[in-house]
Amino acid sequence: MSSERVQPKIIIHGGAGSSLKGKGGAEAVRQSLYRVIDELYELLLAGANAQVCVVKGCQLLEDDPRFNSGTGSVLQSDGQIRMSASLMDGTSQRFSGVINVSRVKNPITLALELQDSHDRVLSDYGAAELLRELAIPTYDPLTEIRLQEWTLERQGNFTKEMAGVVAERELVEDGARRGTIGVVVLDSQGNLAVGTSTGGKGFERIGRVSDSAMPAGNYATPQAAVSCTGIGEDIIDECLAARIVVRVTDGMPLQAAFERSFKEAHRNQRDLGAIGIDQSGAIAWGKTSEVLLAAYHTGEKVGDTLDWTGEELASSIS
Ligand code: ASP
Question: How many CB atoms lie within 10 A of CB 6?
Answer without folding.
Answer: 16
